[in-house]
Queue: 2 jobs
Job 1
Amino acid sequence: MLTGAARGRRLLATVAVVGLVVAGTFVGQDDHFPFGPHRMFSTRNELNGRVNSAQLRFRFADGTVRPVVIDSHTVGLRRAEVEGLEDRFVARPELLSHLADAYESFNPTEPEVVAAELIERTTDLEQGQPVGEPTVQVLATWSR
Amino acid sequence: MEALGRWWFEPLPIARIAWLRTFLYGFVFVDVLLTTSWVARHGAVSAELYEPLLVGRALPLPQPTRTVVMLTATMLLAAAGVAAAGRLPRLAGSVVAVTYFVWMVIAFSYGKVDHDRFAFLVALCVLPTVGRAHWRDSEASEAAGWAIRSIQVAVVLAYFLAAFAKLRFGGLNWATGATLARALVRKGNWISQQLFDMPGVLRATQFGIIAFELLSPLLLVRGRVGYAFLILALLFHAVTFSTISIIFLPHVVCLLAFLPLERLGRAPARSLRRASVAG
């Protein structure tokens, strides 16, 4: 049997956590983790809208230019994270150097990364189906 | 209210706590080393890209350098190992809860927050409160009851509240939009490419998701209804994984709290006894 005090502590914790997560759902933001809204896939996309995704292109010291998959294995961050930080990369393109640095730390045998471009790839949707070739737009560029 | 209190504190098998500890603390290893191993790689990213969450700004947490990430992971896994073995349940369990929380701040302070951790964090917080528990314990206790119910309710809240988040961010007509089509464009595989050619299926699925989330309290119903919904939930996660390669794994392991795990400890004992009678 739990004592009255032990029960009281548990009740209090229960009410607090349930209250916070319910409040977070209606007025919270991601910043309020772990009580932010459970907003995975919660935004609505127009059937005739567009879908964006970020891409990264590096120029290496040996002159080659290659697209680099954005992933924690390559640049230390996942694609959704790079997209979440997109505004900052646009405002301060020199921040792309950190992705280049992370890439070099994971790939020590490859030539140095001397320049980077952050690209947005846009796919148009028609009635919820992708149509045509995706368009690409350079959001930020940086070079050593 | 009183009925709710009775339900929440109803004595439940202590053995289920022991099994939940083994599975959930064991899952910490899977989570850190395999399924979300990207968290550790944040150590390679410059502190200039670190944008700490509110809790990260409120608490005096160090910047996640390589060393900080390594130390946090080591402490977390060491404590999880001890706790999974059922040793020092309060101390080791509390260390896991705190260090896992720090781990989450490292994970979600780089421009993206995932939404699959709520139930798991609740579980890590409540599991230490039960104290000692053995896999073959045949007793039930209110402390175990409260902890198990809390995990169950957290699982249901995660589903149920997600429906309201969709209403808030996507609007009333979320279900008629192209949310899944977007997910398929971004994360699709060969199975999901076939889905583009089936008009209506994606939208019907979106209605289905909302219905599933709103009906999730049925998980708490005893007996057949609850189990049927549990199977539905597992199917939902399997389909999500096979089409858009997304699985809310920390949440999925918390579904274990709905199973009579205590029977795992009894079964071998019974068959042993039967064997000795037969012998």
Job 2
Amino acid sequence: MMYRAVARHAAKLVSVLALVSVTTFLLLETIPGDRLASVLPEGATPEMRAAAEERFGLNGSLPERFFSWLGSALQGDLGRSMQSQVPVTDSILERLPVTLELATLSILLALLIAIPVGVYSGYRPGGLVDRIATFLCSITLSIPSFLLGVLLVFVFAVTLSALPVTGWTPLSEGLVPHIRSLVLPVVTLAAVETVGFIRLLRNDMVATLQQDFVLSARARGLSTPRILLVHALRPSAFSLLTVMGVSLGRLIGGTVIVETLFSLPGLGTLVITAITGRDFLLVQGIVLVVAVAYVLLNALVDLTYPLLDPRVRTS
Amino acid sequence: MRIRPRSTAVACIGAVVALLGSACGSGEASSLSPAGDPVRGGTLVYSYNTEAQSVDPATCAIGIGVGPCQAVYGALLDYDLETGEIEPGMAESFTTEDGKAWTLKLRPGLTFSDGTPFDAAAVAFNWGRILDPALLSPSASVAKTIDWEVVDPTTLSVTSKEVNYQLDFGLTEALAYIASPTAIEALGADFGNNPVGAGPFTLTSWARGTEMILDRNPTYWDQPRPYVDRLVLKTIPADDQRFNALQAGEVDVMAVTVQKYAARAEGAGMKVTSAPLLGGTGFRLSHRGPLADPDVRTAIAKLIDNEQIMNAVYPGEPVASGFTPEDSPLYDPGSAWPERDVQGAQKLLDDYRSRTGSGDIELTYVLTAGSPVLSQTAELIQSQLQQVDGLRVRIVPLEGAAFAAAMTSGDYDLIVSGLGGTHPDNLYKVFRTGGSSNNSGYSNPTVDEALDLTHTSNDPAVVESAYKTAINELVATNAYRFWRHARTDLISPANVHGVEVAYQYWFRPELVWIQQ
């Protein structure tokens, strides 16, 4: 049964990716204006234009260009950046780990806070913890991430000098400096995710705790922590898991503001550089990779549903 | 000591070219103890809001790429903003008697960091490479104005196709950077990411979008320079965030073009070095469509209210009352902007419309997207211009490269623009008929004649007078309008010495040392 589900997802995945590749390619083809304007110098000669068209693969018919691009992409060659001349694949692979780490840690931090708070708020709706959590969630939601980042920088970096203002220290330069460079961006990103997770889990917990099987568990004399964490959390985490997958995918493609604010060498800053520099080949490559990551993550989330709820497996 | 030999014919130009540099200045923090002699050591972190795309000398010699290029290659000649002198760099001298036949003398015994010789053949190779259309080099517009021939390992004979006594300026920018031919041939398209030069630093690592790390080149010719062991070029897009990093001690030299940080920095005991740039914060006018008519351009000039823009957008900063600041040697009362005169502007426009039978005039005002300051200014200008009947302004914000594309293709009526650089020879590129950066369609025989004279004369008084003539004519014909003189501030803590503005946002890192 599981194998069939995987095969079904794989077939869906292939068709989605085919659609993504065509759309990505055509999207950039339809952008108005001179695609070489950003790379041609002032006073460029016709020879320069011809050389640029050849270099960036813009001198064939549309189908020729698409199949040439797709053929190379399938071999991992997404061309070279029009601005920096760095292979697009290398640029993405260099940046992806930073964004992945940032996104994953943000989600983990959000879960670390959201699960206990959401579970307890759901267990005692309207109680002190629930009210405090609701209040803090409302405040956090009303602060945009760029403002939260600036506030955190002002307090923890400028005033207290406890953490760096900007920059990224790779793990190879030591665990502590690496973590120090991560704290503010991760907290900034995690804040909004935490709020969403808490609200979702709390509401699902409230609903789950009214189910018959919970009453039955109580009647059997099971302890409250066991009921909450073993019996109620798993079915309540269904929506949380879905949203978490979507959030992770969104963060991989969308940590633009936080990466820019903290000058982090991730996909977010790369995509900003590519868009503002009209580096079409780089934009094309990033969109493709982010789309693939998004689709794969959601497929993975789909495949984990049966682990949480056996009814999904049989259906 | 740095040596400053000059050819007799060219040296005199330096005095004239100090035109804008005269206003350079630095504010020293009063609490500083005497700095003493330079000492070696430490890491210097420089930060600006964007970074180079490549460190290939064929493409990095103009714009933001100058920073890493200068650090990795060293320039053949250096332009000193403060004195207006063009100084020896990797070359000992670049001399001429007639403005056409030039001789480039390199320092003997120079080697690239890969051990290969930095000789005249290497210079010829690099300049020839610039002319390859496939490299899309912005320096090609200068390289194609000259021919060259290797005379011996340290001598290159250069022939300018036109008389040009300011050709040496080209060797401070467009033709300044020479890379190892061996490395270029070995690395091909990847050379711009793995550059090999003979400058004060070598590239160690580059995390694109965030920071570039360069270490001292042990074979640099001008020992004990560079003084710092390591140079880090950090990209922090937001000015406030860059200033935060400076205050937190994470940045040693912050470059910024908004002047409000200078006062805050000096109040915090830091040093500020400033240099005026050519032109200012303003817009260039197209000379196509309705703007080809001088009356329409004059009407626009009469409608702009510099005071209002400055009070609203740059409170506290001085208002530009004309093209050149009053303390510049190029200052002339004739370069003052026309008086604001809404009724006069209305009359000029009405005359134009009745003369040509045209309806309302709609103009585009193109600016870079995402800048609150530029957006606010655009809205002010829109409201100022629309005070007359029959004139409409459409604000068109464009992302970075789209903006650059509009600029280079001339697809605008009014476009936010500086003039680039600090040297008045940039006027030649922007306003001379057929100039490499003349995208507005501007063509004026008086300006052409004056700018030609700046190239063909080696008399400082004549050159100065010619620049004044050109500028006055540019103002009279409303080719360009700005409200704020452009300026770069380099801000550094009190223990960082030797920071002086060079080129636009850059400095000479090999001269900087850190007081322990």
